[in-house]
Design brief:
The chain is α/β, with parallel strands linked by helices and 137 residues long. The protein has a single domain (6-106), classed as Putative cyclase (Glucose Oxidase, domain 1, 3-Layer(bba) Sandwich), CATH 3.50.30.50. Helices cover 26% and strands 20% of the residues. The chain has a 3-stranded parallel β-sheet with strand order 2-4-5, with helices on one face. A two-stranded parallel sheet has the order 1-3. It has a two-stranded antiparallel ribbon with strand order 6-7. β4, α4 (84-92) and β5 form a beta-alpha-beta unit. α3 runs parallel beside α4 (84-92). The protein starts with 5 loop residues before the first strand and ends with a strand.
Length: 137
């Protein structure tokens, strides 16, 4: 996926099909852009990643997904200053998780639990979290 591009609904459905994953109500969808490897190259990490378009985000949340997480700085591509993901998540009151590290270390696409432990801030709209993926072999 090119940097700063929109990830479309067709892209999402194709990736889910390839991974043999069916979205279920209550699940978290983690998606990997590959930008994590540029963590030490700040200009690239902060500004050169793709993001979901509005149609893809609405469809994912309409499947009952309760959280979308990515390795990127945002679910929105930096090329789209309308922030469609933040807008849709706000409308639907659904969380999203940015800067998720080590997504590729999860050895499966389903059959695991994803848990987050946020700091308790009062009056804030976000928090750093300690994220865990838990599975049994």
């Amino acid at each position: 996926m090119p940097a700063r591009a929109h990830i479309t609904l067709d892209d999402v459905k194709s990736a889910l099909n390839k991974a043999n994953v069916t979205l279920q109500p209550g699940m978290t969808l983690l998606y990997y852009t590959g930008i994590e490897k540029y963590w030490d190259d700040h200009a690239t990490y902060l500004y050169q990643y793709p993001g979901l378009n509005e149609e893809a985000t609405r469809w994912i949340l309409d499947q009952g997904v309760v959280n979308i997480g990515t390795d990127a700085t945002s679910l929105d591509t930096p090329a789209d200053i309308n922030y469609p993901n933040h807008t849709v998540h706000g409308e639907k009151n659904v969380i999203h998780t940015e800067n998720v590290k080590n997504i590729t270390h999860i050895p499966r696409h389903q059959g695991f639990y994803f848990a987050m432990f946020p700091l308790k801030f009062v009056g804030a709209t976000g928090s750093p979290v300690r994220a865990f993926a838990i599975w049994e072999d």
